[in-house]
Specification:
Strand content: 25-35%
Radius of gyration: 29 Å
Helix content: 25-40%
Number of helices: 14
Low-confidence stretches: 404-408
Distance between the termini: 75 Å
């Protein structure tokens, strides 16, 4: 079964066009082999099932397949019709009225969502999802029907995509390790005073001991990855605007997971006086009152660390001598609203991460990905002495954008680095504690970045989450430094003294 499109609509005319019936009929007769055939395989595309001139309007009933959607055919007809009516009859086309537009998209499953903008009804007949579109001239001109169709097709693909396990392929795994520690490292760190829960959900205050651990991880990353591979440090913004997320693609679905940023409507103290006075009198922060005095969200706090870097290159043509570009950022926290999934240090709303971004030709990016994999192997095997594995997965954004078919070549995609958590049991959870992605031309195209030589530009990124590294390392090696690998202890140095409480 193929997609099917059926549109009934009229062109409003400046005068009765009845006298032009013969010429309009000739245009309709020729349309199938002329304006409706351009760029369409023989025997496919759109067909004018009926037409009529009624008062100050010309009605068309159009059916089509995917090669030329009915609304596209409707627009093509308008241009030719305007020429016929204007030149000979001095009649203009004043606008478009869409009486009915039905779209049928093949699907074995119904949609979970029944609310889509400019769609008046959604039905499922067991073989296809049938949409009744509520669109007019402005929506057709702005290609709204095409985006509705793309959205529904994305939803259909997402339902077929399933979970990560369905698109998980093992690339490499280390030998099994003998565990000497099976306690929850977060709970043990709390007991020892290394960390303390912070006031916000999924947030921790890291004491001197845990901070030293984080800084040691950073030192290892600098010595084993950033310096050998030639990275340069930059500082990326941590407040990300909607414009950035539009270009990066995150605006398609990031809403349930971001922390929103709303500025005050004004900084005028008088505007805020009642809020200030309310607190002084009640010692309660008047949240409802504040909600009426802040503006709409301008964006959110850093969710994925690399998108706010890209405006640095946006709209630019980069000299070939600058490739490959290799930059990293470690200037602040990232924030994700993890809903009910927060746990310990490994699943938090606020986390610390070193973000690596690499950009170049296709060959440069793929080669760099391989070099980086070897660097991670040296760290996880030789310095941290972990039990771990690498798996190739199809990222969710690729499923959303119909790129799951690229899974076979293992060039565009994500490598997850996973490690077992002994306290979860012998058959317990493996935690993704590191990842690295080759994103293809997704970001260069999204931000309109070109090379001087016109070569295709690809990019990749790798996020190093310090909480995740600490969770895996401590879960397998304990919180006792004498149990840690010698190579790591030498870099860590003496354990700092924490704050003692009476």
């Amino acid at each position: 079964m193929e997609p099917y499109f059926h549109l009934k609509g009229s062109f409003r005319t400046s005068a009765d066009a009845s006298e032009a019936r013969e010429d309009v009929g000739r245009l309709v007769g020729e349309a199938k082999s002329t304006i409706l055939q351009k760029g369409v395989p023989d025997g496919r595309g759109a067909t004018i099932k009926a037409w009529d001139i009624t008062g100050n309007g010309i009605f068309f009933d159009i059916e089509s397949d995917r090669y030329l959607r009915a609304h596209e055919a409707f627009i093509r007809i308008r241009k030719q019709l305007a020429a016929v009516l204007g030149k000979k009859y001095r009649i203009g086309i004043r606008g478009i009225d869409v009486e009915e537009y039905t779209v049928c998209l093949p699907s074995e499953k119904d949609l979970h969502s029944k609310k889509i903008p400019h769609v008046s009804s959604i039905d499922f007949d067991g073989e296809s999802i049938n949409l009744s579109l509520d669109v007019g001239e402005a929506e057709i001109e702005n290609k709204v029907p095409d985006r509705i169709i793309s959205l529904v097709e994305d939803k259909i693909r997402a339902q077929d995509f399933g979970g990560k396990a369905e698109h998980w392929n093992l690339l490499w795994e280390s030998p099994k390790k003998k565990y000497i520690f099976t306690a929850d490292p977060t709970a043990e760190a709390e007991k020892l005073g290394w960390i303390k829960r912070a006031p916000s959900r999924g947030q921790w205050i890291h004491g001197a001991q845990m901070t030293r651990l984080f800084r040691t991880f950073e030192q290892i990353v600098i010595e084993e990855i950033l310096t050998p591979l030639g990275y340069t440090e930059m500082i990326f913004p941590k407040l990300v605007t909607w414009d950035v997320w539009k270009h990066s693609g995150h605006a398609k679905g990031v809403y349930p997971e971001i922390y929103y940023v709303c500025p005050p409507k004004t900084r005028d103290p008088e505007f805020w006086e009642e809020v200030i006075d309310h607190y002084k009198v009640t010692l309660e922060v008047p949240l409802d009152m504040i909600a009426g005095k802040i503006d709409k969200p301008i964006g959110g706090m850093c969710y994925a660390q690399c998108p706010p870097f890209w405006p640095f290159l946006q709209g630019k043509t980069v000299d070939d001598d600058s490739f490959p570009i290799k930059v990293f950022d470690r200037s602040g926290t990232s924030h994700r609203y993890e809903s009910g999934g927060i746990h310990g240090m490994e699943r938090v709303d606020e986390f610390h991460r070193i973000e690596l971004v690499f950009i170049g030709t296709t060959e440069q990016v793929i080669a760099h990905s391989r070099d980086m994999q070897e660097c991670y192997k040296r760290i996880f095997n030789g310095i941290l002495d972990l039990e771990w594995r690498m798996a190739w997965v199809t990222p969710w954004f690729m499923a959303q954008e119909g790129l799951t078919g690229l899974a076979g070549n293992k060039e565009i995609g994500t490598i997850d680095f996973e490690a077992p958590l002994p306290y979860r049991g012998a058959d317990g959870e493996w935690l993704e504690f590191q990842n690295m992605s080759v994103n293809g031309d997704k970001y260069p195209k999204g931000f309109n970045v070109k090379s001087r030589s016109k070569n295709e530009i690809w990019s990749g990124c790798s996020g190093i989450g310090l909480e995740r590294w600490a969770s895996v390392f401590l879960a397998q090696k304990s919180l006792e430094p004498e149990n840690w690998p010698v190579a790591f202890r030498e870099k860590f140095g003496e354990m700092p003294k924490g704050i003692r409480f009476l």
